[in-house]
Amino acid sequence: MIQWTVLLLTLLALGILIVKKPLWLIPLLGAAVALEISSTWYPDLGILEKVLGEVSLTRFTSISIVLAACLRVFFEVEIRARLIAFFKDPVTLILLLYIAYGALSLVYSADMGNTVKEILRLLVLFAVFLSIALLLDQDSILLPFHGIHLAALALLPLALYEGISGNLIWQGENLLKEHTLRVNATFVDPNIYARFLILGIVANFVIQIFTHNRRIKLIYWACLPLLLIQLLLTGSRGGILTLGMVLVLALFFLPNKKNTLYFLGACALGAVVLLLIRPEIWERMLLFTQDLEVSSPQRLYLWQAGIAIFTDHPWLGTGLGSFQTVFLQDYIHLKNIPDGATLSHTTILTIASELGVLGLLVLTALWVAILGRLYTLYNLNRAHLSVFSETNEKYSVAAGYFLWAMTVFISSQGEGRFFEDPVLWLSCAGLVFLRLRQESYRYSVSE
């Protein structure tokens, strides 16, 4: 009864937002991504759930965003014109190309059922991508950053509770097998939790660029250690490495380089203090290679299997979504793989094994297009990336979206969610919207 009540309240609230405040659905999606535990809030929907997949707040919010955008397309001529312009953008075309290539792999797929599921999931995410781009406007461009930043901060009490008490509220039976307690809060996997916290850190940097009140900026600075504490409690080595790489990228792409340098220094100081207090974390970092060979052999075996599949099917792969099937049928003999290990592999190896060299070329083209959007905005705004300044706000937002996409990509090499992560599609939508908006503004000024 409680689950049905929560379901009805969720649908009612989302319905109100669709009609009254569609823009608020976008930051809600960012917050919903953090609530993987929401899959336990709702009742079993039977056949409907088999068609839609696992019911969660993220899925409900995604569908609501699409419905809200459809209403605007139907009633507003300007939105229809914007939709046509979005379809001409290289990022949009390459995302469509990836989906079309995945659909083409049905011809030779080793698992047609999984291929169909992946195609449908990508189509839904593509619809979310277009819908976000249509719903965004200049006044709400920072809403997604606020949504993820606030959601990441809101998880702090729960993370501290789990870290201090040792009581994991969800998926504890899977995580307590580890030698070191790894906090997961509302996420299935601590590594995904770590990824979300890095998204929150990037959001903090972007929001600070738009914050000119010194006291408020100090508040945002005070939030960064709170996010770092949560990241360390996850025990995610991949998360720490991802944060380091993202901060280096931030030095190149974000204009507020002084903030990034200060934060890097604070991270180094905090790491020293933490390692003095909890040396087992440092030991776990040093034993990364040994852990791969001893405590996590399945990851190494899966890498071997991915390389073997790619070697056997180098050009076209074995079909979108077929990695697990091919692995179980033909490559499990490499080692005695524990149950469930087939879901833990890197994005690059997954794409290489499922879609071959052509799939990797499409992935490369996507990054070229994303960097192209960023470069276009950089040139249009005449920014100087090497200068220690906090100007050029439109470019700064685009750089934030780029760093979000890079965070998802880098962390997905240790946990294979890349195209499946809504934040990637949100980031692409933001970049496409900003580029189109800026070019429209330049055209209107020139007239």
Percent of residues in helices comes to: over 70%
Mean pLDDT, to the nearest integer, reads 82
Tell me the span between the first and last alpha carbons: 61 Å
The outline comes out as: globular
Order of helices and strands, N to C?
Answer: HHHHHHHHHHHHHHHHHHHHH
3D architecture notes:
It is found in: Membrane. It is a multi-pass membrane protein. The protein has 447 residues and is mostly helical. It folds into 3 domains: 1-75, no CATH class; 81-137 and 294-446, no CATH class; 144-290. 73% of the residues lie in helices and 0% in strands. It has helices spanning 2-20, 25-33, 47-52, 57-75, 77-87, 90-104, 112-135, 143-154, 156-165, 172-175, 190-209, 214-234, 237-253, 257-277, 279-286, 288-293, 297-312, 323-331, 347-381, 393-411, 422-446. Helix 11 runs parallel beside helix 13 (237-253). Mean pLDDT is 82; it is low at 289-295, 383-391 and 441-447.
SSE order and pairing:
Layout: H1 2-20, H2 25-33, H3 47-52, H4 57-75, H5 77-87, H6 90-104, H7 112-135, H8 143-154, H9 156-165, H10 172-175, H11 190-209, H12 214-234, H13 237-253, H14 257-277, H15 279-286, H16 288-293, H17 297-312, H18 323-331, H19 347-381, H20 393-411, H21 422-446
